[in-house]
Amino acid sequence: MKRAALALLLGLGAMGMAAAQYRGPLFDAHLHYNTEACPHEATPVPACPHPLADVLDRMQRNGVRAVLANSRPNDGTLALAKAQDATRAAGVTVVPFVRLYRNRDDYNNWFRDPSIVAMVNTELARGTPAGPYRGLGEFHLYDSANADGPVARELMALADEKGLAVLAHVDDVAVEKLMAHTPSKGRQLRLIWAHTGIGGTSAARVDALFARFPGLHGELSYRPGLTCGEGTLCPEWRALLLKYPDRFLIGSDTWVNQRWQAYDGLMQGYRAWLGTLPPEVAKKIAWDNGAALFGLPEPAPR
Ligand SMILES: [Zn+2]
């Protein structure tokens, strides 16, 4: 950054003036379209609080131009992938992931349940109307020891071999374990770390893991200690984002319907702190890093 620009930025900060919001495209790298939002697996569809038109409108009015989509069960993702006229009209590219969950019980058992591998292979073979699945997840490991479960090992090897990305809600120890279970020992796997340590993994530890694993990316929803007040990044996280501008992503994590209802506010919150970063760094975190992971072109301005 030029000295004058830095001085100006510091001056604005000192005067307590709000930085301009980031106004470019957003890549929502953690989106669920679960059965509670709309039960696409049932016919006829019973109560559907958030039909396709509603969720696409939320994305469109927030400048979200691509979504990493997954759902419990996978029918929600398939519904998004199938609605190509509607997603095109909304200017949204759908990047489909295979969720490992058919239902809530699978959250706590997927890592040792062989029927999950069969389900994943069936989905991968079938693909989606928006193209092949690009990754696996989101999955959860509430106890890092379960990263050693037979199905967790098998699916990490599968992801590594097939070049699938992974969206994992895990702790720092499980990141190491999952990486160790890949044939490349984590040198190749693109692992998107949901929340970048929801339990509050220290910035120093995140830094060490990023240095060790070149394909490790951090998605920032719910990340404790990220912001210090409205629209302000905490100093150590600001430093980490500036140190690894190519490795962070934003996401909505619409795991319950309240998150759909809060979608506008979530995206405005991201735009506020993104606006405090150098413009090229903001653009990377907002869009470029997700686009690079999945080979998406720059979206046409709307
Ligand atoms: Zn999630």
Automatic annotation (TrEMBL):
GO molecular function: hydrolase activity
Domain Amidohydrolase-related: 109-296
A family per Pfam: Amidohydro_2
Protein's UniProt keywords contain DNA-binding: no
UniProt keyword terms in alphabetical order: Hydrolase, Signal
InterPro entries with a match to the protein in the record: Amidohydro-rel, Metal_Hydrolase
Coiled coil: none
Source organism, top-level taxon: Bacteria
Annotated signal sequence range: 1-20
Protein name: Amidohydrolase family protein
